[in-house]
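JOB MANIFEST
job_type = single_chain_structure
chain_count = 1
residues = 206
[input]
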Amino acid sequence: MSLLRHFPNRRALLSAIGATLLAFSLTACGESEASLNDIHGIDLTEASFGDGFQLKDPDGNVRTLEDFKGKVVMMFFGFTQCPDVCPTALVNAAQIKSLLGADGDDLQVLFVTVDPERDTPDVLREYAQAFDPSFIGLYGTPEETAAVAKAYRVFYAKVPTGNSYTIEHTALTYVFDRQGKLRIALRHELTPEQSAEDIRKVMALR
């Protein structure tokens, strides 16, 4: 099923995603000894963005990448009322963790809401943990959310639907190494097996 089928403003989403991927190609095209080879995702080793965040978990604790040092982190931006893309991404994340076997304990999945108005801490906790008890939902004020999304070049926008709204958003999962450095962007269409292969390579980096 096409990712765009759920979004009425397809032209805007396509333009935003195209601009994001172009930015990735421009910032991550350099060769480096630390670069990853033969990966399915986008190598962001040379990227000049995505160096951290400060958001709250459902218990109200301020969390940063430093909290997860020693683990490989997968971070996805979405919202709990997302009809397809977000639950699929988190189902895939749970499958990736399972595919990693014992190494799955070294994987931390973070779900950052772009809908803090509706995604209250309790809703966010229940949603993230429904996919795996270790998954953590993160939120900020609308202003903090916008700042973090901008820092990671994530597009999102409200789209009216009757008396409510849905949200168009970038569907990429970011992968950070054990030191908190951004390494890969995983496209939504990758299989859990392909993503797990990429994450194993990130886990092997020292």
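[summary]
The beta strands are 42-43, 55-56, 62-63, 72-78, 107-113, 136-138, 156-161, 164-169, 172-176, 182-187.
The longest helix spans residues 10-27.
exit_status = 0
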